[in-house]
Design goal:
By secondary structure, this protein is mostly beta strands. 9% of the residues lie in helices and 33% in strands. It has one domain (2-65). A hairpin with a 7-residue loop joins strand 1 and strand 2 (11-20). The longest helix has 6 residues, at 24-29.
């Protein structure tokens, strides 16, 4: 979404949000066929860290000033 407070392109504010509902695919990226974690990401695969049921959120904003 973009907002131009003075109805000119000298000041533009852009902001938005995104969400990802990963499901089982996110867990499949970090495990092999027998659900074992690779050695280099072992700490990341703990159940408390990777929870496919929780959505991931991202917020962003940008202020552009052109003179």
């Amino acid at each position: 979404m973009a907002y131009r407070p003075f109805l000119i392109n000298n000041v533009t504010v852009t902001f938005g949000a995104a969400t990802l509902q990963s499901g089982r695919g996110f867990r499949d990226i970090y495990t092999n066929r027998s659900r074992n974690c690779p050695p280099n990401v072992g700490n990341f695969c703990e159940p408390s860290v990777v929870n496919p049921g929780k959505p991931l959120y991202s917020l962003f904003a940008q202020l552009k000033l052109v003179f």
